[in-house]
Amino acid sequence: MDTVMNLTAYGENASAALDAAEETLRTLDAKLDRHDETSTVSALNRDGTVEDAELAQLTDIAQTIGALSGGAFDPTVAPVMDAWDFTGDAPRVPSDEELSALLAHVGLEKLSVDGNTIALSDGAQLDLGGIAKGYAGDAVRTVLAEFGVTSAVIDLGGDVGLLGAKPDGSDWRVAVKDPAAPSKFLGVLTAADTFVVTSGIYERGFEENGVHHHIIDPKTGKPAESGLVSVTVVCGDGAWADALSTACFVLGEAGSLALRDTLAAEKNLRIELILVTDDGHVRYTAGLAERFEPSEEGTYVYEAIIA
Fold it and tell me: How many CB atoms lie under 10 A from the CB of residue 268?
């Protein structure tokens, strides 16, 4: 999945559990990597349809999050991502005309899931890069639990999954990166048995007549300009946390809080947020007030959101 992964588990079966978890990650990577010509997603993008129960489950989650976020998360944005080539050897700024032509093939309505069958229409291409790591984190947590592991840290390139608490029963401490200086931290979050996922401008990008980050607004085909530079989502489900971190980044502060309310009302899903604005504020939801410890070294203004 084009990142470094670190798994730490505690218990008498930890070694075997980690071996099984690694195998799970490799299997998912082989299935979901659209750049691998032998993957299931590549077959879907090539043939327009494929039958696979696991991919159908993941795609259905992606569609649901896309709909709830008003399209702020869209797994069919692959053609636009390819044009920008953020992870390739020649990243560039596509012209407005090129983006307009590509956006004609982007949209949730061009993706359908019927049972175990996934289908694409109108030249759409599936890219699950915005949700795959979180889904993999869920899968790893399940595998570790099946081996009797009750305490583990699943770090998938910065997407952090926590199984239980520390072996001594205390909460884990998860550092949240400073988007302006990723080697430093905004603060430390204490948490257990949940996922902590951050999306920010520091992850991937390039300079060409300005700085361009990799989080694309599916409506414009351009890097999102929402007033945010970083979003951290705390959520019990890895796939949802991963995709929501992207959706909230695109939506901005007000849109993120509205989506949070929608998730609670329609899905009974409670999420907490840490939002970093481009004018130097760190705003976090009230549920984190006792769990988020701001850094004493930063220059940000920290504010709890009563929501």
Answer: 7
